[in-house]
Every structure is written in C-alpha cells, then in structure tokens.
Write a structure and sequence with these properties.
It comes from Steroidobacter agaridevorans. InterPro entries: Split_barrel_FMN-bd, TR_PAI2-type. This protein has about 200 residues and is of the alpha+beta class. It has a domain of about 140 residues: Electron Transport, Fmn-binding Protein, Chain A (Pnp Oxidase, Chain A, Roll). The chain is built from six helices and six strands, in the order H-E-E-E-H-E-E-H-H-E-H-H. Helix 5 runs antiparallel to helix 6. The longest helix is centred in the middle third of the chain and has 16 residues. It starts with 11 loop residues before the first helix and ends in a 5-residue tail after the last helix.
C-alpha cells in the first residue's frame, strides 16, 4: 500500500475495526475478483486472523481455495479538497481519505459449526452497541440452518496490515481550520467525518 511517511496510519488496526465493510480481492488464472463484504477480526483480543463470508452463488466464492493469497481493502471516509480553500500554503486540489489494507492467506470454512461461529462473531460485533443486541437464537426457526449451504465462510491469516490517514497533515493548522469549515458546510457524511478527524490532528 502506498503510504507516504506523513500519511502512514499510526494505528491501521483501528481503521479495520471502525470501517469493516471491506472489498475482498483474489486472483485466479487470468481473472481477478472483488466482493464487498464485512470482514472482522476473529476475536477482540487478537489481530492475527479475520473472518467473513459471501453468498455461495457469487462466482468468486467458487474460486476460493485454502492457502490462497488475498487482499482486503477497508475504505473509510474520503473527501475532495479544493485548492481554493488554502490561504497560507497555496497548492493544487487533493483528496483526503482514510483506508487500510490487509494481505494474508485464506482458509475456507465450509462446515456448519465453523460457519455458525463466523455468523455469531459478525452478529456480536455489529450488534454490540444496540440496546437489545440481536443474536442467532432470535432468527426464525430453521432460518440459520437454511442459510448455511448458501454461504461460504472464510478465515484470513494476516501477513501485513497497512493504513493511510491523509488529512492535510503537511499543511499549516490555519489552513486545516479553513478546510474543516468548508467540509462541514457540505451535506455529505464523508466530508463531515474527514473534518472531524482533521480537527483531532495535533497542531503544527
């Protein structure tokens, strides 16, 4: 992952945790596949493995193999930055963004017990902030068992985690404040999130 020193994420793991809706990328022969799907660390206390799943009728699912090298991209918020917003250090337009990548090796999880564990983990992570978290036990009778043959779950053993947090760190704090004001005036949530992250940068 191209990550210039000024923009290299100090904690790429936190990006993966915060923005888990990833793109799983694999290559087989002359074909390259990519599927957007949520991917999570397998437990709360380790970053060595991740788990996820996709529908079995997805052509990519048919190509997944044990030991296959994979790339998972975790895109966070992003926003265009107009050059007209700079007052101190004049330059050209740019794009601010947050993103992480994980490279690793795949392990297929096809057995019912293993797939149920993956589904439990996904539900546990996504429901943890709800006042009344939903669990697999609340699914309609037989629904989970009916689902299992229709999905293909996987585990990724992590080789490398990298991240970029590009938030105009190379510009003076005075210019960043002007950028924040412009971003907050926009209607989209990504611009607001980039503004919030930029506001928490150390002053330079």
């Amino acid at each position: 992952m191209y990550a210039p020193g000024a923009y290299a994420a100090a904690d790429p793991v936190s990006i993966v945790r915060k923005y888990p809706f990833a793109h799983l990328i694999t290559a087989t022969g002359e074909d390259t596949y990519a599927t957007p799907t949520p991917i999570f660390f397998e437990t709360d206390d380790t970053v060595s493995t991740l788990v996820g799943h996709m529908t079995r009728i997805n052509p990519q699912a048919q190509t997944l193999q044990n030991g296959q090298r994979v790339l998972a991209i975790f895109p966070g918020p992003h926003a265009y930055i107009s050059a007209s917003w700079y007052k101190t250090l004049l330059t050209v337009p740019t794009w601010d963004y947050v993103s992480a990548q994980i490279r690793g090796r795949l392990e297929i999880i096809d057995d019912d017990e293993g797939q149920i564990k993956v589904l439990r983990r996904i539900a546990a992570v996504l429901e943890r902030d709800n006042e009344h978290p939903w669990t697999l036990e609340q699914a309609p009778p037989g629904k989970v068992q009916q689902l299992l043959p229709r999905i293909r779950s996987f585990r990724i053993t992590v080789d490398r985690i990298e991240g970029v947090t590009k938030l105009n760190q190379t510009h003076p704090a005075s210019d960043r404040m002007l950028i924040i004001q412009q971003l907050l005036a926009r209607p989209d949530s990504d611009s607001h999130e980039i503004a919030r992250l930029m506001a928490h940068l150390p002053s330079t």
